[in-house]
Design a protein that fits this description.
With 319 residues, the protein is α/β, with parallel strands linked by helices. It folds into two domains: 5-242, Alpha-Beta Barrel (TIM Barrel); 249-318, Bacteriocin As-48, Chain A. Helices cover 45% and strands 13% of the residues. It contains 14 helices and eight strands. An eight-stranded parallel barrel has the order 1-2-3-4-5-6-7-8, surrounded by eight helices. Helix 8 links the parallel strand 7 and strand 8. Helix 3 (77-90) packs parallel to helix 5 (119-133). It is globular. The protein starts with a strand and ends with a helix. The model has no long low-confidence stretch (mean pLDDT 95). Belongs to the dus family.
Amino acid sequence: MQLNRIILAPMEGVLDYYVRQILTEINQFDYCVTEFVRVTQHKLSNRTFYRLCPELYNEGKTLSGTPVRVQLLGQSPEWMAENAIKALELGSYGIDINFGCPAKTVVGSHGGAYLLQYPDQIFNIVTQVRTAIGAIPILSVKIRLGWDDKSRCYEIAEAIEQAGANEIIIHGRTKTDGYKAEKIDWSTIGKIKQKLTIPVIANGEIFSIADAQNCLTQSQTNDIMLGRGILNIPNLANKIRFKHSPLNWQEVMQLLLRYAMTPIEDAKPLYHSARIKQWLAYLRQNYPQASILIPEIRQLKSQNEICNFLKTKLDNKSN
């Protein structure tokens, strides 16, 4: 299969605005999806949307020009619809609905992947959002293959198409599968695609050019979404699309320093320390140098300490 689009995935607590900005500068993505905006029984404030999607201040695009789609997560059709309207009014590049998040806190409040057990409710939510926003805005839906098995995956996907979604993003595992590598099932994505007329975007376990090609072949799609893989190799999208070489460690360190230096309003005291350690944990899959840095970074607390540490490492490397 020929690759068409590459989309940057939403990853709650990981792919925030600042990481999106860095990654879209060094990769050619067709669009990004935000971390989920949690919808409860009310209309959210402008501030909530701007906090999770500051790109709305820039006509719904990253500073490098990549469109950004706000993702909504909730179980109330009425309030999901109300907040979809709001997101579009503020400038979102369409709407994405999350029925795939497997996190305990999310499914415990009957959101995300929890709703894969209830295709009728998924249909109701997507229908009301489509009706509320009208026919023109792009409406995408992200799912997994099921809750604890795949027996209803076709029913779920067909309900989403019939409800008026423009495209569907499918993570090739069930909620119970979590992120176990051996559970990835791109071929079932392909079987679902045969039953739909809307575009299908394949997601899950894409860490290399070979993974991307295998995913495209098995899922019979032309579009992929990258999540954890792009954190392992920060220019993975361009590596897949243009056969670029992966960034060298020096270049990766420069990205980490840039992220560490980001002034984040209302950031908790250990925010930068936690996020840099988190990114290093992903990077160590492909960069052994990251494993060496993690114990040293763990001892640092403040943003200044981390920035000075990374600067020293970069200076020593360049001398």
